[in-house]
Specification:
The complex is a heterotrimer of chains A (about 60), B (about 190) and C (about 90). With about 60 residues, chain A is mostly loops. Chain A has one helix at about 40-50. Helices cover about 10% and strands about 0% of the residues of chain A. The longest helix of chain A is centred in the C-terminal third of the chain and has 7 residues, at about 40-50. Chain A starts with about 40 loop residues before the first helix and ends in a 17-residue tail after the last helix. By secondary structure, chain B is mainly α. Chain B has a single domain (about 20-185), classed as Ferritin (Up-down Bundle), CATH 1.20.1260. In chain B, about 65% of the residues lie in helices and about 0% in strands. Chain B is elongated, with a radius of gyration of 18 Å. In chain B, about 50% of the residues are buried. Helix content of chain C is about 55%, strand content about 0%. Chain C contains two helices and no strands. The chains are: A little secondary structure (about 60), B mainly alpha (about 190), C mainly alpha (about 90). The interface of B and C includes residues 6, 7, 10 and 179 of B.
């Protein structure tokens, strides 16, 4: 009966074969785990600050949270 | 053990002498959400992390923050190295100059020195990782304020790089938090 | 950009990719595609560093780089003295 406390809502099911993290519990923060896909070239990555396109969040002044 | 590498992580550009901008950017050297605080926070929290992956993340991000500290210092150094006394006075950097000349010192934008109470090392891995997530967001916000204050597009380019690293680090600390939660749940006996 | 800065920039690019992949692997140690990319970039980085060091002197201290002829570690420029401003 391991993992009986694990409650993973279907809409936040981690991708198959991934380390799941812990989803769906109240009073708990989590960040969805990243899955590996395309990466930019080293040259493009350095200029952008990451090689991962899905983590690239450029800032434009005037943009307010 | 640490090994020094005779290179910056990012190729910095500085268009012209600009002591006013240096006075603001120095807060990311020795301010509350700056790179010294970030590096020391992670490197001192790592000893009591319960799982090896968390120790790795804190060691590696703590080390990258040292490289960011060097980038910020290099920006400040190049922004003030050619400044005249009149330029330093006009920029309001004269109070700093009185104590430090053009040397690098750990202060915030208003000149207050770095203090260890900027950081916490709680021993509770969940509490520590939440502090780390918050620290990344505060540093990201500071870089956005500095980008708004910057009148040098070359310096802004480096500030954008440093800001994006905060986003990536947030993701890694979030994944680490998931792993620590998983580990804690695996310890529960029913 | 002069040749030295071009060579150094290439090392920065490769090492940055290694840093970002390293952090990803810390939380995804079983991701084989990331590991393969990390190993490939590390190998290219090592080659680029060796070529750079043979021309311009050691990049690392404490036994990680050899120094031919004289102790070139003490030579300038230091990292904060190299900017990549237009025209350099």
């Amino acid at each position: 009966m391991a993992n009986t406390t694990r409650k993973t809502p279907s809409n936040s099911e981690p991708p198959e074969g991934k380390t799941a993290g812990y989803f769906g519990q109240l009073a708990r923060a989590y960040v969805p785990p990243q899955t590996y896909s395309r990466v930019w070239s080293p040259a493009e990555g350095l200029m952008k600050g990451t090689v991962f396109p899905e983590l690239y969040r450029p800032y434009e002044p005037g943009m307010r949270p | 053990m640490w090994i020094y590498e005779k290179k910056l992580e990012y190729p910095i550009r500085v268009s012209y002498t600009n002591p006013r901008l240096a006075k603001e950017i120095i807060t990311q050297y020795g301010g509350p959400d700056g790179e010294l605080a970030a590096s020391l926070r992670y490197l001192t929290q790592r000893y009591t992390m319960p799982i090896s992956q968390a120790k790795a993340v804190l060691t590696d991000i703590g080390t990258e923050e040292l490289a960011h500290m060097e980038i910020v210092a290099s920006l400040v150094y190049n922004l003030i190295k050619g400044a005249t006394i009149d330029e330093i006075k006009a920029a309001g950097l004269d109070d700093y100059y009185a104590d430090h000349d053009k040397a690098l010192y750990f202060v915030n934008a208003a000149g207050a020195p770095w203090v260890a109470s900027y950081i916490q090392s709680k021993g509770d891995p969940i509490a520590d990782l939440h502090e780390d997530l918050a620290a990344e967001e505060k540093a990201r916000a500071t870089y956005e304020f500095l980008i708004r204050l910057s009148d040098d597009p070359d310096v802004t380019d480096t500030l954008r790089f440093l800001r994006e690293r905060e986003v990536v680090h947030f993701q890694r600390f979030g994944e680490t938090l998931n792993l620590v939660h998983e580990w804690m749940d695996s310890k529960k006996v029913f | 950009m002069d040749q030295r800065r071009r060579d150094l920039l290439r090392i920065m690019e490769l090492e940055f990719a290694a840093v970002d992949l390293n952090l990803f692997l810390d939380t995804h140690p079983d991701e084989q595609r990331a590991l393969a990319d990390y190993n490939a970039v590390s190998q290219e980085l090592m080659r680029a560093k060796m070529a750079y060091e043979s021309r311009y002197g050691p990049l690392m201290n404490y036994g990680y780089s050899m120094s031919e002829g004289t102790w070139r570690w003490v030579e300038e420029p230091w990292p904060w003295e190299i900017t990549f401003n237009r025209g350099e």
